[in-house]
Design goal:
The complex is a heterodimer of chains A (413) and B (454).
Chain A lengths: L6 E13 L2 E13 L12 E3 L22 E15 L4 E12 L12 E21 L3 E26 L4 E27 L5 E16 L13 E16 L2 E19 L13 E17 L7 E21 L4 E22 L2 E17 L5 E3 L1 H4 L12 E15 L4
Parallel strand pairs in A: 3-7, 3-16
Antiparallel strand pairs in A: 1-2, 2-4, 4-5, 5-6, 6-7, 7-8, 8-9, 9-10, 10-11, 11-12, 12-13, 13-14, 14-15, 15-17
Chain B lengths: L2 E4 L6 H6 L14 H10 L14 H12 L11 H4 L50 E2 L5 E2 L21 H5 L7 H5 L22 H13 L2 H10 L10 H16 L5 H6 L8 H11 L19 E2 L33 E2 L21 H9 L1 H6 L18 H9 L13 H12 L26
Antiparallel strand pairs in B: 2-3, 4-5
Classes of the chains: A mainly beta (413), B mainly alpha (454).
Chain lengths: 413, 454
């Protein structure tokens, strides 16, 4: 990412094999994710500004390490899949499981501004079952059922400043925040495609439904959402066309992605509410993709080379209506932005080897910039009520994300 | 256990964090203004300061002498109290201070021949003894009381400094414009200025040279020995002088018995209705003052580019501009950002902002009400004539300042004239009556025999 806003590297290794009507694959990957660089703390130590009356300056027993954590952490991923085809019926059935041991989810460090270190640990499991039905005339229907579990813990160390009325000085005390992030997801996706005309055009439809429940979410300083359980429903509805013209292929699609989400905070003590719970969060995103590719024969050493160019435009819009039924306060937010991603790729197919390169750069995204060495007023911890005022001096810095992907495929004899 | 609902999506966390403009006025039943205000105050950790810890009398006595003694300056013509004069509420009443070579006191002080203004306004020392984490307008001296302190001197800062204020007091004597003088200067008696001949980064030699001057005066030796009875005279360093100066500042200039402080101690009658309305604005979502000026000190813990007009000779590589904290190493994200000053007694310490660009609190609040417009329409005629040519109102400068203006001030606040008056009334409630006349702090004489108030 630009502006030193993070980086990552992944090294995958996979094998794929088929025997008769069965096929299967295995892939392993190691991943390294670099946290955003929030500026130097060489001049001043980043601290949170907790000015409550607290007279202990002792190191909290749970805080083991106040040193800044390493900027890079590693993830380990494994993927297995197996499937079979039933030629008589035109059916293919497959299943896959992806497991990852996570110590570095990108961007989590940004969710705890003012912290001295964030230690992440957790795992995710993703299981899928797919069915492909093919008919004569090059029509196909694909269905995938998905279940995913994502569980992380964030051990976040802050160094708080607090006011000692005895000495009339600010003192410093460490604080450890132990947050959980647990998400379960069920999803179903259907895809259907068929030739549109005899002239090489094809058309396809896509429909996806996801149900996400979140028994635990992190208690982020950035938001006024305490450790809320919640749930969300996310859908996709899309249509796309493509056309083959000799060695050239053109395709485009558009996908509408509405999301509805609800979460709630459990009051620490019984609280009287004034009415029904009526908060809503609604995303209304649109994804547009188009691309072209062309294959050429280069010479005796290569069978083919293919060049791909593409563009992805993603429009994100959401509105949030929150209501605190205890304090009878409301808040409404509406945000929208546009991301656009040009992509390019090159494939070289040799008789015994295939090389692929794909590059993309995403513009229109922002990264949170929180000065690392300022006092961070954190009324989320201090202010009574459910909607604290924003006391954090935050800005979003436009960044672009560049991705390079290289893959090498060759047969194992 | 009852639950409350609120819509959210983890997907949008970062955007949510930035979108703070949709706050609505609470729709619940109206509360009394005191109940509403006390609820607002609770959110910003605003607490009464209480009594100041008593400083040792001998330490305060030494600190007072040093504070007013021009022998600390290279040319023997300026004391700490010249720019931090109790008569002008521990400041000088000038937009930009006049350092060594100048003449006069307070707002009538004028530059000496060939001299330049100090790049920044002299902040008041009122309540400087309360332990802020950052000192100087760019926060270049910082740290908790327990240390370590970050200062321009780095590792050569002597150990044993008890407070950050004492660490801060080490540095004005090293500053050429303020107290040390330029190479080749001669002091008020025509003698060579030995302090001015030392290198700019040779802090230790400057401190040692100042101490040689002080310890050449028998009365100072006695005062130092009384203040530091455990320290042999041969081991006294300028850190001991700075410790004494800080003790005097803490003892004499901590003024926190304001009507607002009494209100914080549950005296509802301490503030007028207008002041309470102003406080609601100050601590509320409309004016958002407390987002920088919160906490026990009502500020001091944050930096912000408030879009203040650029004025004066500037400092550092970007002179004649003044990048404030952004000038410090590795702090480029803070371009044009300055410390949000603690606000107790602010009524007494005009002119305001890092360069004294605004002569009144009303002018400051009109600026905050619409920073982009106010900066573009800034009227330099409100400045003293000597400073008007030093206003940098060109489009490039204004654009540079606004490009990095604090997000809380990038759009108009929408305050009415009535609301601005209420805010001013609240700011006036931060004045400790005993801070209005501090002239009794000026000693009749100092051990060097140099004039005190000239």
């Amino acid at each position: 990412m630009s502006h030193d806003a993070g980086a990552g590297r992944t090294l995958p290794l996979g094998v794929f094999s088929a025997a008769g009507s069965w096929y299967g694959g295995l892939a392993l990957a190691l991943q390294q994710v670099d946290a955003s660089h929030l500026g130097s703390s060489s001049v001043n130590t980043p601290v949170a500004f907790d000015t409550g009356f607290r007279l202990t300056g002792q190191l909290a027993p749970s805080v083991q390490d106040l040193s800044p954590g390493p900027r890079s952490h590693g993830n380990a991923l494994a993927f297995v899949m197996i499937g079979t085809t039933l030629p008589a019926s035109g059916l293919s059935v497959g299943g896959s499981v992806r497991w990852a041991k996570l110590r570095a989810v990108d961007g989590v460090d940004l969710l705890y501004p003012g912290s001295t270190r964030v230690d992440q640990s957790g795992a995710t499991v993703d299981a899928r079952l797919g069915l492909l039905k093919e008919w004569a005339g090059d029509q196909s229907l694909e269905a995938v059922v998905l279940h995913e579990r994502f569980r992380m813990t964030h051990d976040v160390t802050f160094l708080d400043a607090f006011w000692d009325p005895g000495t009339q000085q600010f003192l410093q005390s460490p604080r450890l925040v132990h947050d959980h992030d647990f998400t379960k997801r069920w999803g179903l996706q259907l895809k259907y495609e068929r030739p549109l005309t005899a002239s090489g055009w094809r058309i396809g439809w896509l429909a996806t439904a996801n149900r996400i429940s979140q028994p635990d979410t992190p208690n982020l300083d950035l938001l006024n959402i305490p450790q809320d359980p919640g749930h969300a429903a996310a859908y996709e509805l899309g249509v796309g066309v493509s056309r083959t013209y000799g060695p050239s292929l053109f395709g485009m699609d558009v996908v509408y992605q509405p999301i509805w989400s609800t979460a709630w905070a459990e009051a620490g003590t019984p609280a009287a509410t004034l009415g029904s719970d009526t908060s809503r969060f609604h995303f209304s995103n649109v994804l547009f993709r188009m691309g072209v590719s062309r294959e050429v024969t280069l010479g005796p050493l290569t069978r083919t080379a293919a060049l791909q160019l593409g563009l992805v435009v993603r429009s994100v819009h959401y509105d949030l209506a929150q209501r605190d039924d205890v304090d009878a306060t409301t808040r409404h937010l509406e945000e929208s932005w546009l991301e656009w991603t040009p992509t390019w790729g090159l494939s070289l197919r040799f008789p015994e080897l295939e090389l692929r390169y794909r590059g993309l750069v995403t513009h229109g995204t922002d990264r949170l910039v929180t000065p690392s060495n300022q006092f961070v007023t954190n009324p989320a911890d201090l202010r009574p009520g459910f909607f604290p005022s924003p006391g954090l001096s935050m800005t979003l810095d436009g960044v672009h994300v560049v991705t390079h992907q290289v893959s090498v495929s060759f047969p194992l004899r | 256990m009852m639950t409350r609902s609120v819509g959210t999506a983890y997907l949008g966390l970062l955007v949510l964090a930035s979108g703070c403009d949709g706050w609505k006025t609470p729709s619940g039943p109206p509360a009394s203004i005191d109940a509403e205000l006390r609820q607002s105050l609770g959110g910003w950790s605003v607490v009464p300061i209480g009594a100041t810890p008593v400083q040792a009398a001998a330490l305060v006595d030494l600190g007072q002498a040093l504070m007013f003694d021009k022998v600390l300056s290279g040319n023997r013509d300026i004391a700490c109290a010249t720019c931090h004069n109790p008569v002008t509420h521990a400041a000088d009443g000038l937009a930009l201070s006049v350092g060594t070579g100048g003449s006069g006191l307070g707002p009538s002080r004028t530059l000496g021949p060939g001299r330049q203004f100090v790049p920044r306004n002299a902040p008041t020392l009122l309540n400087a003894g309360l332990g802020a984490f950052y000192l100087f307008l760019d926060g270049r001296v910082s740290g908790f009381r327990s240390g370590p302190f970050q200062t321009p001197a780095g590792v050569v800062l002597p150990s044993g400094l008890p407070t950050l204020l004492a660490a801060q007091a080490m540095f004005p004597v090293t500053n050429r414009e303020e107290m040390r003088g330029a190479p080749g200067d001669r002091d008020r008696f025509g003698n060579p200025n030995e302090l001015a001949e030392l290198g700019d980064s040779d802090f230790v030699s400057v401190w040692q040279a100042v101490m040689r001057r002080l310890l050449a005066i028998p009365e100072y030796v006695s005062k130092f020995n009384a203040a530091f009875p455990q320290t042999p005279t041969s081991q006294l360093g300028f850190q001991h002088a700075a410790t004494a100066i800080a003790a005097f500042e803490t003892q004499a200039l901590t003024k926190t018995d304001s009507p607002f402080d009494r209100y914080l101690q549950h005296d509802d009658a301490a503030l007028t209705a207008e002041q309470k309305r102003g406080a609601l604005l100050f601590f509320g979502d409309k004016a958002r003052c407390a987002s920088c000026h919160g906490g026990p000190l009502l500020g001091g813990g944050d930096f912000a580019n408030a879009g203040v007009p650029q004025l004066g000779p500037g400092t550092g590589r970007d002179a004649p501009l003044d990048l404030g904290r952004g000038e410090l190493f590795n702090q480029s994200g803070y371009r044009f950002a300055f410390r949000a000053t603690p606000l107790r007694n602010v009524e007494l310490t005009a002119p305001y902002m890092h360069d004294g660009a605004f002569p009144t609190l009303e002018a400051v609040l009109h600026h905050y009400n619409d920073v982009p417009r106010a900066l573009r329409e800034y009227d330099a005629s409100q400045l003293p004539p000597a400073l008007q040519p030093m206003y940098h109102g060109d489009e490039a400068t204004i654009s540079a300042v606004l490009a990095n203006v604090d997000g809380r001030l990038s759009r108009p606040l929408g305050l009415s004239d009535v609301e601005i008056r209420e805010l001013v009334a609240f700011l006036q409630s931060l004045t400790d009556p005993s801070a209005r006349d501090l002239s009794s702090l000026v000693p009749a004489r100092v051990p060097s025999g140099l004039p005190v108030q000239e």
